[in-house]
Amino acid sequence: MKEVTRENAAALIRAVHLLAGQGHTQFADLGGGRPMNRLNDDNLPDLATVAEAEQPARQWLLLDSDVSAVTAGRALLGGEGVAVVQQDLRHLPGVMAALHGHLDMSRPVVVILGAVLHFLTMPEAQLLLDALWAELASGSVVVVTHLTGEGADPDTVQAGAKAYRTLHGIDIYPRTRQEITGLAARFDLRPPGVVQTIEYEPPDAGPAPVPGPHFLMWVAERS
Questions:
Q1: Which InterPro entries match (predicted)?
Q2: What is the mean predicted confidence (pLDDT) over 194-217?
Q3: Rounded to an integer, what distance in angstroms lies between the CA atom of residue 142 and that of residue 170?
């Protein structure tokens, strides 16, 4: 599973690099977790650093409910153009207030929901995406990676979710391709559509797709 998690992070890096290169300067990493500043085993850069390399004047909002993630974010990402806010994605007024408080919502924003929607129930995830659709300006982009159990034995997936809940005290909801695609319903999917993270803007050389439970990914635009 470590390889799958790494590829999820690498796919998000590729997406941010691509979107910043296309001219996007405002980013909101919702549920972004703890920045590592290359202190992780894989020596991967933080997404904010990737965007800054392409757009030095980028504006970056990191939002997470976990106090340790927020503390690390303020320590490692602090600086001009960066805001770090503690907020639960289920509290939509607080999420929208953070977006409006730190970004110019009259202009396009790239919203990153990396490996986080599977911690929300389907109604909670849909409400969040509906709220984003209502608040985002035309030309904004939403990037989603989501755990799926498709292609794996259902009993194994269910057992994995139960074990995760026992270990971490948090419910997790692996979903089907159809369900993950449905979350993008109000947005316009960009090519290549809903794919495994390994398939999104793949580098010239890299590891083969990892079998079993994995992450699916989509990038979609607010028209």
A1: SAM-dependent_MTases_sf, SAM_dep_MeTrfase_SAV2177_type
A2: 75
A3: 25
What amino acid is encoded at 77 in this protein? L
pLDDT digits (tens, 9 = 90+) for 119-138: 999 999 999 999 999 999 99
Number of H helices, E strands in the chain: 7, 8
For residue 187, give both structure tokens.
Answer: 């947005």
DSSP string of 73-101? HHHHS-STTEEEEE--TT-HHHHHHHHHH
Half-sphere exposure of 93 (CA within 13 A, CB side): 0
- Rounded Cα distance between 115 and 33, Å, is 10
Terminal CA-to-CA distance of the chain, rounded, Å?
36
Strands (E), the chain: 26-30, 59-64, 82-86, 110-114, 141-148, 188-189, 195-196, 214-221
Alpha helices in 41-146 (DSSP H): 47-54, 67-76, 92-102, 122-135
Would you give the DSSP letter of residue 150?
A: T
Cβ contact 165:171 at 8 Å: yes
Specify the residue for token string 């909670």: 124
66 burial level (CB within 10 Å; 0-12, 13-18, 19+): middle
Domain 2-122+132-221 of CATH type 3.40.50.150: yes
Q: Is 175 helix (H, G, I), strand (E, B) or coil?
A: strand
Does 170 score more than 70 pLDDT?
yes
